[in-house]
Design a protein that fits this description.
Blueprint lengths: L2 E8 L3 H13 L2 E8 L2 H10 L4 E4 L8 H11 L5 E5 L4 H10 L3 E4 L6 H38 L3 E5 L5 E4 L1 H7 L3 H4 L4 H5 L2 H17 L8 E7 L5 E11 L6 E8 L1 H56 L8 H32 L7 E4 H17 L4 E6 L5 E4 L1 H17 L6 E8 L5 E7 L33 H11 L3 E7 L3 E8 L6 H15 L1
Parallel strand pairs: 1-2, 1-3, 3-4, 4-5, 12-14
Antiparallel strand pairs: 6-7, 6-10, 8-9, 9-10, 11-13, 14-15, 15-17, 16-17
Helix pairs in contact: 2-3, 10-11, 11-14, 12-13, 13-14
């Protein structure tokens, strides 16, 4: 099979050129050639296509073999260049060879052309393959360097003694060392916690002796250490690289700090969700229990209170002083217990979203007078005056009248209870331009410490607690008051100076037909968000 050969000939004699071509074809080459005589033509030929071989006469009318050689060298192309001349001397031939020609021969000795061409083409192929291998190696090293430098994981290589030989940029960021400061130093002393270093060294010794390691070729989670001695979790993949000398090792290390943090957040969220479900279930069961127990608790207690009232009133016969005192204590305790039960059930209904608002328009003055009249007997016993003041001419409000009475009664009873004897409790009410009710209950009693203000609206919280309590109560009145006001989409504030009295101010907007549905929806959404 013919061997393809692309041949460029620098020759002014066409016959001499054809003689060389014919000789090459006889040797089995499939020659495609071009003959040129000038530098311009040679440059055009070199730019026009790829050549396997250049042969040149040494002396041409407008050109020379030496000039042709210089032109070829200037292009940087590695093409065998052979001088064929009829007049070149030995000294000149040596000079040409030193200048870069691959061979020379006399025109009368063209038989030597074939072995020379074969040798030069073979050497050129060897050079080409070597360059290709070098370029491939260079490309491979460049790719490896790019991967090494841009890797998101830390890459650390150590020799058989455990000393660092490579430390990529991500390792610098993760472990907070500069590469130049760690190369050549023992890795164990830099990134492995002190308590684990001996175990690492023993594992290295065992691998060098047996060729086996428990974590080589595995992905494991370990604890690493930064330059400031802080420890953090990592995932490690360790590879052993065999060499003619001793093995080396490359570790690929991923910082798991963020991942572990996210896992903890997810686990905490899961626990909170489960806890929330348990809380919701407990609240549901509590509300159901309280609702179911309403009749069972109130019915016998009302009987106790009713019969106690009959006995105390003497309707079944006279009582001696001791009997009347004991029955009065039973009646008072029963009434107190009934109030506690009613407050607890009302709170349960509000929390369960089952308390309904009944809208009606009524006179604020009339209702306020009624509630104050109920409180006057208790206030009169301590010579406490209850005064009412209207701050505006508007009197009609649209609210749940029964629950408003409950709120006002709670605030008034609270004010009377904590007032000094021979003092005054003042009720001020009025409607603003938006028809919102604004009502204040003021007293000049014992007041509230600043540190205690956040506690007064909490269920079962009593500021006067313990065995030395002076003021009776359930600890539910103000908590229930606040919830009822908020059920009306209102608000309540308290201002107080310890030892000088307190002022409770509530603002309640008019009740609309949609408030009941709106509250139920808000309560359901809030329950879901717990």
């Amino acid at each position: 099979m013919s061997i393809p050969l692309r041949l460029l000939i620098i020759e002014d004699c066409e016959d001499d050129a054809l003689l060389a071509v014919r000789e090459l074809r006889r040797a089995g080459y499939d020659v495609r050639f071009e003959r040129v005589e000038t530098a311009v033509a040679m440059a055009a030929a070199l730019n026009g296509q790829t050549w396997d071989l250049v042969i040149a006469d040494y002396s041409l009318p407008q050109f020379s073999g030496k000039a042709a050689l210089e032109l070829l060298k200037s292009t940087g192309l590695d093409i065998p260049f052979i001088i064929i001349s009829g007049s070149i001397g030995e000294d000149l031939a040596v000079t040409v060879m030193k200048s870069g020609a691959n061979d020379y021969m006399m025109k009368g000795n063209v038989k030597r052309l074939i072995p020379s061409v074969e040798r030069e083409l073979r050497d050129a192929e060897v050079r080409r393959q070597r360059r290709a291998a070098e370029e491939a190696l260079h490309d491979s090293e460049a790719r490896k360097a790019a991967i090494f430098d841009s890797a998101l994981d830390s890459i650390i290589s150590i020799d058989h003694a455990g000393n660092i030989i490579e430390f990529n940029p991500q390792a610098e960021r993760t472990f907070r060392y500069n590469r130049d400061d760690v190369v050549g130093r023992p890795m164990a002393d830099l990134i492995i916690p002190a308590r684990l270093r001996e175990k690492h060294r023993q594992a290295l010794i065992r691998y060098l002796a047996t060729g086996r390691g428990s974590i080589v070729g595995q992905r494991v989670e370990l604890t690493a250490m930064r330059s400031d001695a802080t420890e953090f979790p990592v995932e490690l993949s360790l590879t052993a690289i065999s060499t003619k000398a001793r093995p080396m090792f490359t570790a690929y290390i991923r910082d798991l700090t963020e991942q572990k943090m996210q896992e903890e957040i997810r686990e905490r969220s899961r626990e909170l969700e489960e806890q929330n479900i348990r809380i919701q279930e407990a609240n549901r069961l509590k509300s159901e229990f309280l609702a179911n127990m309403s009749h069972e608790l109130r019915t016998p207690l009302n009987a106790v209170i009713g019969f106690a009232e009959i006995l105390v009133d003497g309707r079944v016969g006279p009582l001696n002083p001791n009997q009347k005192e004991f029955l009065s204590d039973i009646l008072t305790s029963g009434q107190h217990l009934l109030q506690l039960i009613n407050d607890v059930l009302d709170l349960a209904k509000i929390e369960a979203g089952k308390m309904e608002l009944e809208s009606e328009t009524f006179s604020i003055k009339k209702v306020t007078d009624e509630v104050c009249a109920l409180m006057k007997p208790a206030a009169s016993k301590r010579n406490i005056m209850i005064n009412i003041e209207a701050s505006s001419n508007h009197d009609a409000v649209t609210l749940d009248q029964r629950k408003f009475k409950q709120v006002l009664y709670n605030l008034l009873s609270n004010a009377v209870k904590f007032s000094h004897d021979n003092s005054e409790v003042k009720v001020v009410y009025g409607l603003d331009s938006k028809r919102q009710l604004q009502l204040q209950v003021k007293d000049s009693g014992i007041g509230i410490k600043d540190v205690d203000l956040p506690r007064i609206f909490r269920e079962f919280e009593q500021l006067d607690s313990g065995a030395t309590r002076k003021f009776p109560g359930t600890g539910l009145g103000l908590a229930l008051t606040k919830k009822i006001i908020e059920l009306h989409k209102g608000s309540i504030l308290v201002q107080s100076e310890f030892g000088k009295g307190s002022t409770f101010t509530m603002t309640i907007p008019p009740l609309t037909p949609t408030d009941k549905e709106s509250y139920a929806a808000d309560h359901e959404a809030a329950t879901r968000e717990l």
